[in-house]
């Protein structure tokens, strides 16, 4: 039971991060029908910019409180990622909206490699220790189950951000314009919606979520690296597909489910394979799920089957 509860906690933590990143994928796909494979690298950029800001603040103001330092680091990382997301949309994707679907897909992969290369030039190939500004001292709410304050912060923070996004999309004028643009670009434009602005804001909001997820991911594992965004981005894409890409609730559900499956798989894989595999093979579960979903339910858990327009 202790192993089960511990893996449940770990799964909720990592699943919350996957859900935040998956929301960026699903928002862009819902409006443009584009899989932005460079989105995972915005997670890396957010973490690296926050790390650089923390190191600067530690040297400039050694007595600054950890909470203030974390807040200022996020205040720098989020706008940088937002500006980067807007730049990608404006320079790389806008001209390809009417191109064959393969063109923006290849462009997205190219943007991913470009961001990783620039990050490698700026921060080097080495792994960097990410400052632990939130306590990592384990709490023990149940005998044999350990939870750290940073894990609690990640889960609660992710839940609040996801709730705020749902309110934004369903209750505000901007959200109404986003839903109209997702339904039909041309009709929305005829009704007075500035579709270029709405699409750009979608990229910007997704980039902000990626920046927060990057700081959470790096804080949880204590490291940052120029290639750290690739695997979380790929798993978040799997989560978006699992939940039903284009569906916000599906992205959240897919992220949590994928995190739990991966965590329980890591905890029990040795027993399931009779010692042949260990927890270092936990990544295989994400790709097994992706394959099963694409074969048996391509629309995802909450996706709906939609007929093509004439």
Automatic annotation (TrEMBL):
Tell me one Pfam family matched here: BPD_transp_2
Determine the domain of life of the protein's source.
Bacteria
Origin species, per record, is Aromatoleum buckelii
Q: Which UniProt keywords apply?
A: Amino-acid transport, Cell inner membrane, Cell membrane, Membrane, Transmembrane, Transmembrane helix, Transport
Q: Which family does it belong to?
A: Belongs to the binding-protein-dependent transport system permease family. LivHM subfamily.
Report the locations given in the UniProt record.
Cell membrane
Residues making up the signal peptide according to the UniProt record: none
Name of the molecule in the record: Branched-chain amino acid ABC transporter permease
Transmembrane intervals: 12-35, 42-61, 67-86, 102-123, 143-169, 196-217, 237-261, 273-296
The way this protein sits in the membrane is described as: Multi-pass membrane protein
The record's listing under PANTHER family reads: BRANCHED-CHAIN AMINO ACID TRANSPORT SYSTEM PERMEASE PROTEIN LIVH, HIGH-AFFINITY BRANCHED-CHAIN AMINO ACID TRANSPORT SYSTEM PERMEASE PROTEIN LIVH
């Amino acid at each position: 039971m202790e192993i089960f509860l511990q893996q449940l906690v770990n799964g909720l933590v990592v699943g919350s991060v996957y859900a935040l990143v998956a929301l960026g994928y699903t928002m862009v796909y819902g409006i443009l029908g584009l899989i932005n494979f460079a989105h995972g690298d915005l997670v890396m950029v957010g973490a690296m910019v926050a790390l650089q800001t923390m190191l600067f603040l530690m040297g400039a103001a050694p007595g600054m409180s950890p909470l203030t330092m974390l807040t200022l680091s996020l205040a720098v990382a989020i706008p940088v990622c937002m500006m980067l997301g807007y730049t990608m949309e404006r320079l790389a994707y806008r001209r390809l909206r009417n191109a064959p679907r393969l063109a923006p897909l290849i462009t997205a992969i190219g943007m991913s490699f470009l961001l990783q290369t620039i990050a490698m030039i700026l921060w080097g190939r080495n792994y960097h220790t990410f400052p632990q500004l939130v306590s990592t001292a384990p709490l023990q709410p149940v005998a044999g189950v350990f939870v750290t304050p940073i894990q609690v912060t990640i889960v609660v923070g992710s839940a609040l951000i996801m709730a705020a996004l749902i309110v934004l999309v369903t209750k505000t004028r901007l959200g109404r314009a986003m839903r109209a643009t997702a339904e039909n670009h041309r009709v929305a434009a005829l009704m007075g919606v500035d579709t270029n602005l709405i699409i750009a804001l979608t990229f910007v909001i997704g980039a902000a979520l990626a920046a927060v997820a990057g700081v959470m991911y790096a804080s949880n594992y204590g490291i940052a690296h120029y290639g750290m965004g690739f695997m979380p981005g790929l798993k978040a894409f799997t989560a978006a597909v699992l939940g039903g890409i284009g569906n916000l609730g599906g992205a959240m559900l897919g992220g949590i489910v994928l995190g739990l499956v991966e965590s329980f798989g890591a905890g029990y894989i040795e027993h399931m394979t009779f010692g042949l595999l260990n927890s270092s093979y936990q990544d295989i579960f994400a790709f097994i799920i992706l394959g099963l979903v694409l074969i048996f339910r391509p629309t995802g858990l909450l996706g709906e089957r939609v007929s093509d327009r004439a």
